[in-house]
């Protein structure tokens, strides 16, 4: 790999709340900042949601895409160089980082923040693209007040989604595909102790029915449960391959491992490579926590570059 003549102080991969917040803090710290935000999902997972009501500062809520456009405009106004390019490899060359894009372009930087997010796992059944199918009860639950909803999954996330929806919806049915939940005992106990939640075991989903919005969930055994909302909570896939290929350690779930407890919480096992947002967060996965870790990553990079 031949490095270009210009080298940024920091290169940020990923254009969600973590990436843009990192850029805002980096440029304000005087670091030359390049962002490669990718063509697959520019703006990140929030661009696929409708109203965001839990991001502070917007009394009436804000549409996911509008929030991301505002973050990008803020980062660019402050001086971040935002490029739409998918990064296929990160390599170290003579003490610097090279990010190689799909078009074989090379961008050089002294440090890298990986903020590539996580993708929701999809059921892959007919009807999954209907309106009324959601992957986030905290985001969309309030739109299903006093309606019949179904949650699919048997892990801690599915339990959390069901418990979040229980006081809002008129009924919550949790569909577990096997005979047992994978969730922790504590979460299982909370779900089984909640009279508002019905758990159905051995209930794999065959499809979601409805014309343009959800009307029901069809089980493999042929039964159809009437519902206007379906929350799919069957796990996440962190987009960690890029950083993993560059040598960053991952946990059992594939999430990037960061040095959470130290004074540089976003540092990874590879010096100069930092991780922020959902790609390194199996637990919280909120826009605001992703933004916060982007801030931490920029401050960590600033400290790292000063110490070099
Ligand atoms: P998990 O991987 O733990 O669970 C996924 C669940 O979805 C499993 O029950 C799995 O079933 C089921 N599933 C997978 N594919 C399908 C499918 N096609 N149809 C139906 N069901 C399917 O993911 P989570 O997101 O729940 O949790 C991820 C991690 O985050 C875990 O470590 C969890 O403990 C943690 N977490 C902790 C929380 C807490 O402590 N409060 C809250 C949220 C998450 P099967 O078992 O049959 O494979």
Structure at a glance:
With 308 residues, this protein is of the alpha/beta class. Helix content is 24%, strand content 26%. The longest helix is centred in the C-terminal third of the chain and has 21 residues, at 287-307.
Features:
308 residues; alpha/beta; seven-stranded mixed β-sheet; 24% helix; binds NADPH dihydro-nicotinamide-adenine-dinucleotide phosphate
List the total number of helices: 7
**How does the helix and strand content classify structurally?**
alpha/beta
| Spatial extent as radius of gyration | 21 Å
Uncertain segments:
none
Ligand identities: NADPH dihydro-nicotinamide-adenine-dinucleotide phosphate
Shape: elongated
The overall pLDDT, averaged over residues, is 95
Largest sheet: 7 strands, mixed
Explain how this protein is built.
- This protein is α/β, with parallel strands linked by helices.
- 24% of the residues lie in helices and 26% in strands.
- It contains seven helices and 19 strands.
- Strands 1, 2, 5, 6, 7, 8 and 19 form a seven-stranded mixed β-sheet that branches.
- A hairpin with a 4-residue loop joins strand 7 and strand 8.
- Helix 1 (17-28) runs parallel beside helix 2 and helix 4 packs parallel to helix 5 (185-192).
- The radius of gyration is 21 Å and the shape is elongated.
- The chain starts with 6 loop residues before the first strand and ends with a helix.
- It binds NADPH dihydro-nicotinamide-adenine-dinucleotide phosphate.
- NADPH dihydro-nicotinamide-adenine-dinucleotide phosphate (NDP) binds next to helix 4.
